[in-house]
Structure formats: C-alpha cells, structure tokens
Known about the structure:
The chain is of the alpha+beta class. It folds into three domains: about 1-60, no CATH class; about 65-170, 2-Layer Sandwich (Tetrahydropterin Synthase, Chain A); about 210-265, no CATH class. It has ten helices and eight strands. Keywords: Membrane, Transmembrane, Transmembrane helix. This is Peptidase.
Amino acid sequence: MVVVDIVIAALGVAGLWLATSARIIKQYERGLVFRFGRLRSGVRGPGLAMITPVVDRLRKVNMQIVTMPVPAQEGITRDNVTVRVDAVVYFNVLDPARAIVNVQDYDFAVAQVAQTSLRSIIGKSDLDDLLSNREKLNQGLEVMIDNPALNWGIHIDRVEIKDVALPETMKRSMSRQAEAERERRARVISADGELQASEKLSLAAGRMADTPGALQLRLLETVVEVAAEKNSTLVLPFPVELLRFVEKLPAADRERLPAPLRDALPRKTGS
C-alpha cells in the first residue's frame, strides 16, 4: 500500500509539473522564454512548448498584420489651410525579441509615431497634394514611421491617408472656384465654335461671291424651305436675275418650284 501511495503521489506531482510547464503556441504566434528575467536564446515556434515552472516565463508575440487607425490630426498646410487628416497603419512584428525587449509597448509606440508623422506630413504638404497626390504622401508617411519602427523589430507594411476634412469656408471657396472653372471652359468652347462657324461661313460666302449661280440656288432653297412650312406666308419681290435664272430651267424643274414663283414667270406662247 505504501508503494502504491508513493506511485500515485509521484504521478500526481508529474501531472502537476506537466500542467504547469506545458504551453501551446498558435500558428500565428511566436514564444519568448525568460528565465529569471533573462531572455533565453531561440524563439519558440507554433505547437507545444515546455518550460520550467517557477523559473521560466513564456511571452507570446502575435506575428499577424495589425490594422491600426490613426486618430484625426489637425494641422496647417504649407499654404496656410487648416485641415484634419486621419490615416490607417498596417504593420507586423518581424523580430519578436526586439519587439518585446527594445520597447515597452510596441503598439502604443507605433501609434504615437504615426500621429506625430502625420502632423509633420501635413505641415510639409500643400492642400492640393493632400487632395490629389495621396499616393506620394502615403509613401513618405510610411518611410517616416518605418525608420524608428525597424529598431523595435516592427515592419510597416502600408500607410494610407483615409480622409481630409476641410473647413466649411474652404469648401464653399473650392465650390465657387470649380463653378467658375466650368463656366470658363464652357465660354471657351462656345467661342471656339463661333470662330470655326464664322470661318466656314466666310469661306462659303467667298465661293458664292465667285459663283453667282450658287447664290441663286441658295436663295431658291430658302424659298422652298419657307414655302414648305404650314401656315407660312412668304412675301418678297423676286429679283430680275432670279426670274432670268429660273426661265432657263427645264420644264420639269420649273414645275417643282413654289406656286408664287412659278406664276411670276412669263408664259410662253406659241408662234
């Protein structure tokens, strides 16, 4: 009985030791073991990790990409416009040992560097750059945050400016500016159209002046168009040149002329 009790006690102690020394590290985590406060060499990978109870302490580090929103920062641009800009930072841990040993709280440290860098980039940029050249600003902001983060074993994957909030007065001014620009373009297009039309009319008038018959034909077309309209009345004296021109037309073409013009023609009588 004594032996059985000893065995049971030994198994109990072994089970307790196993329960207190076994640790499970997930696939996206890495483990650091501190023995009496001193970091042991080697990083524990995912799976089952055994430590010595009491003397060892396991610290798990998340290696996933973290999405950190940067609160809106207010600043004055290089062209003296007050704006509020917010952003988002994507980062992950590259070196678990440096992330735990070199900085007290790497999440808080990255957040503070991101805020100060965002305020700095606002002061160095014009309003037009913040509104239309965000890709270049994102790259500059990423470099500014990544420089100190490398010393902490942190990799900045991407930084993006989310929104640029402008004062209401600036919004109204930009709206008026855009409206004036659209009106200017409309006037320029209309003026170009009138210029092209005048050039074409001038060319057509020159050709008609060189060819009197073309001018007479144009007058006839106008008469026909006006006569074809319903409830239209056309009163105008017929020029002698027009009557002489029409007299030379074949009989079939003269029958298609408007009745007033056809009646004004002299009748041909037999000899």
